[in-house]
Specification:
Length: 97
């Protein structure tokens, strides 16, 4: 889509940047005529909740990786599809080759 001069003026007046326009286009709902996109506070709240959940998931993943890093990493021994043992990659067990 291309921006009209009218849109550019209204964006400046109403403090909307192109990233906000993109969000409304991506996440909004079209009206029956297909000439308007609506993004209301309920949908925005849902999107914010999804983002918060993803942030929490990533934080847990970060914590796990930090635990592994403090241990110098880890080595997992397997035999085919069977997991045999795991140990930290300290100097005593450094056989990652």
């Amino acid at each position: 889509m291309t921006n009209t001069k009218h849109l550019q003026i209204r964006m400046q007046q109403r403090c909307f940047d192109s990233s906000l326009i993109g969000l409304v286009l991506d996440e909004g709902v079209s009206n029956k005529q297909g000439d308007k996109e609506f993004l209301g506070t309920s949908k925005i709240s849902d999107l914010l909740n999804q983002i918060q959940s993803e942030i929490a998931r990533l934080k847990k993943e970060q914590d796990k990786l930090q635990r592994l890093k403090r241990r110098g990493g880890a080595t997992l021994v397997h035999s085919g599809e069977r997991l045999v043992t795991i140990y930290p990659n300290d100097r005593k067990h450094n056989h990652a080759k």
